């Protein structure tokens, strides 16, 4: 099949994954103690974890829907038995804006990969945002000079679905105006990117940066170790 579009994952494919607990947890501690709550560091840590544990446990059993930041914050406040709309809104802001405190760095080979596809294909981004909204990711990509490489950006917080739900991929392809059989997805997560894209009817290139469990019955069309190998891998598929 002729390739007409290439879509990319974001985290650990185009940018390095970043754990923002070092920004969110201290702010959570500060805000709760400013409200006069006598909580130990361990109690606050347990509440912090409760929010993300809720997200991770809920996503697979609810059709891989996107978990909103306010749902995570509600679980944090529920864990400590505290209710305050003002505090809730402040924590939502803190969690979502953490990505701007220290934006994730681009991975090696990003510009080479995007330069190769830009004038040859329609180009999309398919990203699970977690609590880092797409509107902030757009700002960061613009700052790095890569935003204009993409014809369509599809973020889970805007579509309300996360990988490996194939509808996240097909939403991007619908906007690109390309059929799944004429597209290739590039990503690092076997479970999220490769399985999800194959279920959507796409071909796949797996950026294998770490050992992962491969789901039986699913095989990527190409495996690379970094984006520097991407142009050659795509040429083979062409």
**Poorly predicted spans:** none
Looking at the overall shape, the CATH architecture of the largest domain is 3-Layer(aba) Sandwich
Mean pLDDT: 96
- The Cα radius of gyration reads 19 Å
First-last Cα distance: 8 Å
Q: How can the largest sheet be summarized?
A: 6 strands, parallel
User: Which word captures the global form?
Assistant: elongated
Give the structural class: alpha/beta
Please tell me the total number of domains: 2
Order of strands across the biggest sheet? Answer: 3-2-1-4-5-6
CATH structural fold name of the largest domain: Rossmann fold
Please count the helical segments.
Answer: 10
Order of helices and strands: EHHHHHEHEHHEHEEH
